[in-house]
């Protein structure tokens, strides 16, 4: 009886570990237009490659805020977690940086949100909020201020400077 239990346990273990290995490596996609594959897990490390938005990656390992990845062309390096997503970016993604996508790069600041989905949090009032605002008489200046914020755009350099100066995201210390 003990021998049968031992054999069944061994078979189960082999099946479990074999199926875990067959599941394949986790796939990630570049979700930021200014993503860089780094030689080490710091923002100041040498850049191995600049990765275009939507580039598929294979996760090799992770360490805190950094992922070690490989590209389809075989390049291996480190990328900041705020620059990738576990889903391919929407086809309508553009190279311009909206305020919402800039905020998506603030994952090192303590804001807990999916790095590729944070623009949802700043895209305006939901239908429910619109009804509430109408019922409670939201002042027109508040609506105009929100519309102004939602139209704000920054270029890559402005965003990069902001992140560096604030020690945010991949520049966090």
Low-confidence stretches: 16-23, 93-122
Strand content: 15-25%
Query: The CATH topology is what?
Result: SH3 type barrels
CATH first level? Mainly Beta
Fourth CATH level, the homologous superfamily:
SH3 Domains
The CATH architecture can be given as: Roll
| Global structural class | alpha+beta
The count of strands amounts to: 9
Descriptive account of the structure:
- The chain has 173 residues and is of the alpha+beta class.
- It has a single domain, classed as SH3 Domains (SH3 type barrels), CATH 2.30.30.40.
- The chain contains 5 helices and 9 strands, in the order αββββββββαααβα.
- A hairpin with a 4-residue loop joins β5 and β6.
Task: Give the secondary structure arrangement, pairings included.
Elements: H1 2-22, E1 27-30, E2 35-38, E3 47-51, E4 56-63, E5 66-71, E6 76-80, E7 84-85, E8 97-98, H2 99-103, H3 127-136, H4 140-151, E9 153-154, H5 156-165
Antiparallel strand pairs: 1-4, 1-7, 2-3, 4-5, 5-6, 8-9
């Amino acid at each position: 009886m003990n021998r049968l239990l031992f054999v069944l346990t061994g078979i189960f273990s082999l099946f479990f570990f074999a199926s875990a290995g067959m599941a394949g490596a986790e796939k990630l996609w570049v979700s930021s237009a200014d993503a860089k594959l780094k030689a080490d897990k710091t923002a100041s490390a040498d850049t191995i490659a600049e990765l275009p938005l939507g580039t598929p990656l294979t996760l090799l390992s992770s360490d805190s805020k950094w992922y070690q990845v490989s590209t389809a062309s075989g390049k291996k390096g480190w990328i900041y977690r705020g620059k990738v997503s576990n889903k391919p970016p929407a086809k309508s993604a553009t190279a311009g940086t909206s305020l919402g996508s800039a905020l998506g790069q603030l994952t090192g600041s303590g804001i807990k949100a999916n790095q590729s989905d944070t623009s949802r949090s700043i895209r305006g009032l939901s239908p429910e909020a619109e009804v509430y605002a109408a019922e409670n008489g939201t002042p027109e200046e508040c609506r105009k201020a929100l519309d102004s914020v939602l139209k704000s755009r920054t270029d890559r350099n402005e965003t990069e400077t902001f992140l560096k100066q604030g020690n945010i995201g991949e520049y966090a210390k």
